Amino acid sequence: MKTILIGTGVLIAAACLASAETKSGITESVAIGGKTISIKYSAPAVNGRVGKLFGKDGTIGSDKNYPVWRGGANAATALHTDADLDLGGLAVPKGDYTLFINLANPASWELIVNKQTGQSGLAFDAKQELGRVKMTVGKPPALVEQLKYTLSTAGGNKGKLELAWENVVASVNFTVK
């Protein structure tokens, strides 16, 4: 009985540690012109892996779709828009999409808007792409421990989608139509 209790305690502790590493079901949203744009994602933590996340030899490099990355953890990152968007030059009709990131060029990431929804983060299907747009890539002022998406207004009917994690911040501007 004592062995069962110890084993159960170890499993509970492991589950608590795993949940502390990745926050699931986070929703970021912004309202522009009375229309809502939202992103639902799971946020992994750096957890001491600074400099070991991106690149073909990094943690993300072991994903089967590399250099395409789910832009988060667990399930694929979901985008919902109540309005038609011009996302960095890509026409995105109102609706639901999945976001992926092409990391092939570390200095110039591409945001991939995929028409397929509800898939796991490792179930990327290039045939379902709506399109790709270049992201502006830079460095945040400090280490970003937990992956974070931000949607913000930029005045009028304009906004910005930003992804920050570890030592990278990548963004793309959008316009609500």
Distance between the termini: 64 Å
Say how many strands there are: 13
Indicate the overall shape: globular
Strand content: over 45%
Q: Approximately how much helix is present in the residues?
A: 10-25%
Residue windows where pLDDT falls under 50 for at least 5 positions: 3-20
- Secondary structure class reads mainly beta
Rg, please? Answer: 18 Å
The average pLDDT is 89
Helical stretch count?
1
How many structural domains in the coordinates?
Answer: 1
Main beta-sheet strand count, sense and barrel state: 7 strands, antiparallel
H and E order: HEEEEEEEEEEEEE
Care to give the gist of this entry?
The chain has 177 residues and is mainly beta. It is built from one helix and 13 strands.
Describe this structure in words.
This protein is mainly β. It has one domain (23-176). 11% of the residues lie in helices and 47% in strands. It is built from one helix and 13 strands; from the N terminus they run αβββββββββββββ. A hairpin with a 1-residue loop joins β12 and β13.
Describe the structure using short key phrases.
single chain, 177 residues, mainly beta, six-stranded antiparallel sheet, 1 helix, 11% helix, globular
Spell out the blueprint of helices and strands.
Elements: H1 2-21, E1 22-32, E2 35-44, E3 68-69, E4 77-81, E5 85-87, E6 90-92, E7 95-102, E8 110-114, E9 129-134, E10 136-138, E11 144-153, E12 158-166, E13 168-176
Antiparallel strand pairs: 1-2, 2-4, 3-7, 4-7, 5-6, 5-13, 7-8, 8-9, 10-13, 11-12, 12-13
